[in-house]
Amino acid sequence: MKYYLAIDLGGTNVRVAVVSPQGDVVEEIKRPSRASEGPTIVLDNIIDMAQSLKLLSDCLAIGMGLPGPVDTKKGCITLSTNLNGFTGFPVAAYLKERLNLPVYMDNDANVAGLAEAVFGAGKGNDVVYYLTHSTGIGGALVVNGKVVSGRKGYAGEIGNIIIDRDRASYAHINNLKVGAVENEASGSAMVRKAKQELDDSIVSAGEIFKLAEEGNDKAQHLLDEMTLDMGMLLQAIAHVCDPDIFVMGGGVTKSKDKYWPQMIAHYSDLVHDDMRDTPFVQAELAEPGIIGAAALCMAMEKGN
Fold this sequence. Notes:
The protein is of the alpha/beta class. It folds into two domains: 128 residues, ATPase, nucleotide binding domain (Nucleotidyltransferase, domain 5); 159 residues, 2-Layer Sandwich (Nucleotidyltransferase, domain 5), CATH 3.30.420. It is built from nine helices and twelve strands. Strands 3-2-1-4-7 form a five-stranded mixed sheet, sandwiched between helices. The protein has a five-stranded mixed sheet with strand order 10-9-8-11-12. Strand 1 and strand 2 form a beta hairpin. Helix 5 runs antiparallel to helix 7. The longest helix has 25 residues. It is globular.
C-alpha cells in the first residue's frame, strides 16, 4: 500500500507521521522541535524521526506544514518568527537530498485548511475558505482540492488585513501593520485588551466570554468590537473569493455559540445580499496539520 510522510513542524513540537491516501494516520512520532537551534539541527532531528518509522520505505512523497509564509516554489519560509534561522533556508531541498523523496511544503494554516477541505468539514465543496481564530488569525483558500499559496506564500496571511487604521498602533507585534485584524480580534488581542480594560490577571479569551455572560459591560464591549472586526474580515475575504463555505477552527471557536451569531450578522450586513447565505461551519478534524501535510502530496500527485 502507498503512504505519505507527513511533517507538522511548530515552534514547540514536531510530529512526523505516515498517512494513508484515506487520511488515516498509521504511524507517528512526536518530539520537541528544537526551534531555537537553527535549521540544520531541526531538520536533522526530523530526518532521524522519519528514519525511525517502519513504513518510511512505503512512502511516495513528503508533505510538510510550517509556521509563517512559505514560498512553495523555492521550498523555503519567507518570514520566520518562531523558527530561528529558517527565513530563506532551502528546507525542501535539504529534506529531499537526505530522504530521497519529493517534498511539498506550505504554511501550517494552509495545510490545516487543505485537510478540512479534502477530509473534514469542507469536504464536497469546490471553494473552501478555512480560517483559524486562535492566539493569532490565519486562513487558507482551497480551490478544487488545492491550496492557493500565491506568488511568495502570502496568500491566506489574513491576520494582516487592515480593518481600522485609526486603532492604537500595535504594528510591532508579529510584523503586522497598524489596524491589522490579528492585533484587534485574535485571542491574544482580546486578552491584551482585557488586561488593560478589565483585570490584569486575565489570561484567556474564555475568561472574557464568561465575564460577558455574567453581565460585565466592559467584557461585552470587547466581544462586540471583536465580532464586528471579524465580520469585516470575513466580508473582505468573501468579496475576493466568494467561497462555497467558511470553515473555522482554533481555540476561540470553542466559544462559537457566544459570538458566531453576532459575527455572522455583521458579515451579512456588510456583503451583497446574494452572499448572505454562505454557510459557516466549525472545523472537525483532530489532526489537521498531519493530515493536511499528506494531502499536499495527494494534490500534487493528482496534478490539481
